[in-house]
Amino acid sequence: MDESPSRIPVRIVLPDVGEASGEFIRFSAPLTFSVIMSKMPLEGRLHSQPGGYSFIVGIRRGAEKAVKTVKAGDIAYWPMQDAVVIYTSDARPYSPVNTFGKVTENLELFSGLRSGAKIRIERA
Q: Domain containing 13: what range?
């Protein structure tokens, strides 16, 4: 995957589970993308929710090009919970989310994770 200012490749590390690949996409939510990039690497503990897993990031952003439906593999910022969400299936979030990325390889690593599992997202 070629890196451009609009698409940044990322590595999603789940300790003791494996690594997934993805990309953050500026066009989807440019302000959210910029703030997320300034906080890299992102680290947290996953919390299970319908359709995926979330972890708090502490950026306090509002809605930006927010959507009410997501696809499996989407990475989004959830303003209501100040959290990044990685969706493992198509879903309708509790409230609109700002999508800003996509898991491109190994999404299946997330199946069967328990709440509290560690995650780290860094530039690839």
A: 7-123
Q: Is residue 2 part of a domain?
A: no
Residue 16 burial by CB count (10 A; 0-12/13-18/19+): exposed, middle or buried?
exposed
Cα(6)–Cα(44) distance, rounded to whole angstroms? 25
Q: Which of 40, 78, 82 is nearest to 59 (CA)?
A: 82
On average, the pLDDT of the chain sits at 94
Q: 0.85 cut: is pTM over it?
A: yes
How many structural domains does the chain have?
1
Tokens representing 6? 């609009």
pLDDT digits (tens, 9 = 90+) for 80-97: 999 999 999 999 999 999
Span 35-54, pLDDT tens digits: 999 999 999 999 999 899 99
Give per-residue burial for 100-111: e unless 16+ CB within 10 Å, then b.
Answer: bbbbeeebebbe
Specify the CATH number for the domain of residue 84: 2.40.100.20
